[in-house]
Amino acid sequence: MNRTSILQRSRLYADTRKHLTNKGYLEVETPSIAAGLIPEPAIHVFETSFSSPFHPSSLNWLIPSPEVFMKQLLADGSGSIFQISKCFRNSEQIGTCHNPEFSMLEWYTVDADYRDSISHTEEYISAVAPPGTPEHLLPPFRIESMHNLCFTHAGIDLEKLQTLGKLKAAAARIGLSESNTPETWESLFNRIFLSLVEPDVPQDRPLIITDYPAQIHCLASNKAHSPYKERWELYAGGIELANCYSEETNPDLIEDFFREESAALASRTDVPNAAIPDTPQEYHHLFSNPDKPFPQCSGTALGLDRLLMLLGGYDSIEGVILFPLSATL
Amino acid sequence: MIKAGQIEKGMALLIKGAPFIVVEREFVNPGKGSAFVRAKLKSPSTGRVLRETMKTQDSVEEIIVDDTESQYLYNDGENYHFMNTDTFDQFEIPMASFEDYQYLMKDGETYRITFWGATPLDIIIPYKVIYEVAEAQDGVKGDTVTGATKIIVTETGLNVKVPIFIKQGERILVNTETREYLERVNK
Q: Of A169, A9, A225, A204, which Cα lies nearest the Cα of A105?
């Protein structure tokens, strides 16, 4: 038993609750087992089933994030909320940064956007980092747009490469090899980012990468007059630590997202026999209730095991997870 | 042809017509993206390092290689000279591809060499190797600080950080990947 890591986690959770409660957030608890999930074709989920002699049995899914439930609370007028919850993701490589079951801090701030969430996250890290935390994990964060990072590290101007044909030509020019399976703008962009940008991003400070290409579908709102989404990711020590949006509130765009991503999910072939979760019916109605308009808000999800690993100086996430799944494989 | 998802460390791949050894391989899921394989590849002939990110479903050409046991003879500053212990054929491998191996390989020792046809691709150094301490300063008398270390030089010229009590002429076990001291070897 790793007594030190038990103490570190206990302290982190106590400090997290104290900080967010003092800032006016309400702590909530939502289910781990869901009858429907927000469709996300890039995520593989765990399937489970309810069985009983008294009820019809049903297929259910372990949540990959509590977003599907927390947005229902926001729609119902909860105000700013946070949750520390277990999340589950299947089919990822187990190791330094991944365990199929992990702990997430997810918080939503009403009347705020993704810019506001940067300072909220800086305040949060300052509040929970123990004395002696190395500077490269502490605020102030370095803030860089995805556009500038791609320009600096890959030598490409994303705004001029908005079609697949143009991006392919640029990829060939910078020496990226061609894929021999169907390529989308998103997959090619990700290959450029993972080959040339992510390995070289500065690590002397935590780094916020802002304004992700709109071609990467998600429930972040569009950034006006640009091909980007109001979304950022936080990297610390070279590790992806948090993801944040200005949340999309337009019911028509949300309905489009559910329709398109459900179709992409159904046609996914990358992992044989992978579970395809149901999506909640009429979810977009949450955003179109004239009596209760969905609040403008910003949501941030932060990996608590990764944060513990970084703050505690561990080499692997398994140093802070008491019973990692890999031990049973 | 194999799927990129099946790439493993140590494999040899043909990239744009040239052989490369996989030095590192990891699966990465960018935020909101599907899984990719990120590999660091090294050209055995030039030492050039290539970073590739592939979709797990992409196909890549794996090279069928042969392993032979060969004796390391010497290096002439440009090439390592080996002799195949079955055929007694002698061959060279450019030092540029495995520059720091000169401090890990012992003259006269047998190593496993990976070949692609007639082209040597990779030299396999065992994970743990015993070296003799060729040069070491004596620990200062009365120095009892726990964890005190010093740098010694092995008979192959490798610098290793060791505990202060290790003496010249003693034998030590070294992790050849991290170049770290593991333990003293008693006869």
A: A9
